[in-house]
């Protein structure tokens, strides 16, 4: 028992040191492959062009009975969300790039959520996630102001083997309609996916019609 106890302490210390080293590296001024603005520009042109001339083609997707649109790399495939009983849930959808280990999950809220509740909802999600996942490191909470209202986000880091991963969770609301979403990627891929995630989040658009979901 004593050996196990000390092993756990040393493991915690190792993970904490590893976390600090990775965050310090991520804090360098030129750590991103592209800026958020460069990602948005590339998306508008149909593809991102990295500094090694690699191209990432982008296409616009629609979800939830076409009530919202958003850009994603063409490599992502859609999978249907399921409820707790294993049945199809029309209010959940997941897009994955299996090869890169990146996923985007969206959850349409059935209840109205007004703009003044968006930040409160984001804070509730962050606190709830921390309780359910003790290994989660809450890194940052922020808000983005767009024409279609406020976006509230939090960023979290998970130090797990073999690949620590990063997650950006966000809440959007517009004219009562609302959804929560999350983008998850390997920490080692953050130089591309951190700015690209924020570009995607900024470009999610509520469609101006009263189409009802079935």
Structural class assignment: alpha+beta
The count of β-strands is: 11
Helical content, roughly? 25-40%
- pLDDT below 50 for ≥5 consecutive residues: which ranges? 1-11
Rg over CA atoms: 18 Å
The biggest beta sheet, please? Answer: 7 strands, antiparallel
Give the number of helices.
4
- Global mean pLDDT: 83
What is the overall silhouette? Answer: globular
- Topology order in helix (H) and strand (E) letters: HHEEEEEEHEEEEHE
Intertermini distance: 55 Å
Oligomer: single chain
Strands in their spatial order, largest beta sheet: 4-5-6-10-9-8-7
Strand content: 35-45%
Concise synopsis of the structure shown:
By secondary structure, this protein is α+β, with helices and mostly antiparallel strands. It has helices spanning 2-26, 36-45, 115-132, 190-203, and strands at 47-49, 55-63, 68-73, 77-82, 88-97, 102-108, 136-146, 149-158, 165-174, 177-186, 205-206.
Description of the structure:
The radius of gyration is 18 Å and the shape is globular. Strands 4-5-6-10-9-8-7 form a 7-stranded antiparallel β-sheet, sandwiched between helices. A 4-stranded antiparallel β-sheet has the order 1-2-3-11. Helix content is 31%, strand content 39%. The protein is built from 4 helices and 11 strands; from the N terminus they run H-H-E-E-E-E-E-E-H-E-E-E-E-H-E. Residues 1-11 have low confidence and may be disordered. It has helices at 2-26, 36-45, 115-132, 190-203; strands at 47-49, 55-63, 68-73, 77-82, 88-97, 102-108, 136-146, 149-158, 165-174, 177-186, 205-206. With 214 residues, the chain is α+β, with helices and mostly antiparallel strands. Helix 2 (36-45) packs across helix 4 (190-203).
